[in-house]
């Protein structure tokens, strides 16, 4: 079934946008990965704000550590709600495994020239069915992601870059449908998440947003594997 779905998506997209193949999507994605691989590791301060109608989550602060290719650690004095999809914006992780990339069009986003590329994972084990990436054609950084996953529905990530000479985001906005993303019991309490689901087709989907602001990046500081194996203070 997965192979049939993959074949159908590939054929339809290829037919619709065949005229747009004046740019090589694989070359663009490889440049994005190459740019990110220049950063061996980093630490950064993060401020997390959660906006969901039925939840009152106080602003939280954390320190995030990353080491190529996929080591990540979060330290926080209190509870920090960070969706996994919004926390790990590594192109290496996003574009791991075999996939088919299709160049869709040239666009503009926040005043920047953008290459729009659709990515279809080929592996049955991939949790993502289809992703659309908005890539800065000059800086080779990802500015927006729309993904459809098997378990969490569709989510959208906007990445903003305000730090000079640092190709890492200053802010990430993660938008999701509340009814499609399971929330920790410690957050929902007695709230029944089923009540967040629309009762009829006329009801509007309830969305939530997590905004993470990043500051004080420290890049290539020599973080080791042992550091990531140590117990953190997160959620103690």
Concise account of the structure shown:
With 236 residues, this protein is an alpha+beta fold.
Could you explain the architecture of this structure?
- A hairpin with a 5-residue loop joins strand 6 and strand 7 (142-149).
- Mean pLDDT is 80; it is low at 185-203.
- The relative contact order is 0.20.
- This protein has one domain (2-182, 206-229): outer membrane lipoprotein receptor (LolB), chain A (Clam), CATH 2.50.20.10.
- The protein has a 10-stranded antiparallel sheet with strand order 3-2-1-10-9-8-7-6-5-4, with helices on both faces.
- The chain is an alpha+beta fold and 236 residues long.
- It contains 6 helices and 10 strands, in the order ααβββααββββββαβα.
The helix fraction, in percent, is 10-25%
Strand order within the widest sheet? 3-2-1-10-9-8-7-6-5-4
Distance between the termini: 43 Å
CATH first level: which class?
A: Mainly Beta
Q: How would you name the CATH homologous superfamily? A: Lipoprotein localisation LolA/LolB/LppX
Stretches where pLDDT is under 50 for at least 5 consecutive residues are 185-203
User: How large is the count of helical segments?
Assistant: 6
CATH architecture: Clam
- Largest pleated sheet: 10 strands, antiparallel
Integer average pLDDT: 80
Q: Give the topology string: H per helix, E per strand.
A: HHEEEHHEEEEEEHEH
* Count of distinct structural domains: 1
CATH topology tier name = outer membrane lipoprotein receptor (LolB), chain A
Give me the Rg, rounded. 19 Å
Structural class, please?
Answer: alpha+beta
What overall geometry do the principal axes of the alpha carbons give?
globular
Q: Percent of residues in beta strands? A: 35-45%
